[in-house]
Write a structure and sequence with these properties.
Blueprint lengths: L12 E7 L3 H18 L6 H15 L7 E8 L2 E8 L20 H8 L2 E6 L5 E8 L22
Antiparallel strand pairs: 1-2, 2-3, 3-5, 4-5
Helix pairs in contact: 1-2, 2-3
Length: 157
């Protein structure tokens, strides 16, 4: 008797693009991410804001002339993960405590407020990746986050 292997019913969603480490590249990262999320039928907020903050940090603090940064979006289960990889691996991000009058320094505080989880990972030298994760709402007609189907943890049926 042969067994049929289970079919993969959840679409694999991923998107990546290399961009110049300039303010224009950061704006383009947000625009491209917004269009990709729209094409997947996913909510734009807070993901578009997270991409904007992480990309701006990459071009402000992780910029090395002539070396692009990478935007990667992917969905695993009910989680959207946003990754920005730059080529300044010796500078891991750390939240600042700006004065009320300061005009900058709040980007990571915004990321921490909008993301369910975030962090930084060293990569192959000279790279580092700063990432943020957002739990997706359930899709209509499916009570499970991200529309992945199946049973939630701890349910016996």
């Amino acid at each position: 008797m042969t067994q049929k292997s289970p079919e993969l019913t959840t679409p694999i969603r991923n998107f990546s693009v290399q961009l110049s480490p300039t303010p224009r590249g950061a704006r383009l990262a947000r625009l491209l991410a917004t269009e990709q999320l729209r094409s997947w039928g996913l909510p734009l907020d807070p993901a578009a804001h997270l991409v904007a903050e992480l990309a701006t940090n990459a071009v402000t603090h992780g910029r090395v002339p002539g070396r692009d940064f990478l935007l990667l979006l992917y969905v695993v289960g009910g989680t959207l993960r946003i990754e920005i990889t730059d080529t300044c691996g010796d500078r891991l991000p750390h939240p600042q405590h700006p004065t009320p009058e300061a005009e900058s320094g709040r980007g990571l505080a915004i990321v921490a407020a909008l993301a369910d989880r975030w962090g930084a990972s060293p990569g192959l030298p000279p790279r580092k990746t700063v990432w943020a994760e957002v739990t997706l709402p359930p899709e209509p007609g499916n009570p499970f986050p991200g529309g992945t189907g199946g049973l939630p943890q701890g349910t016996n049926q």
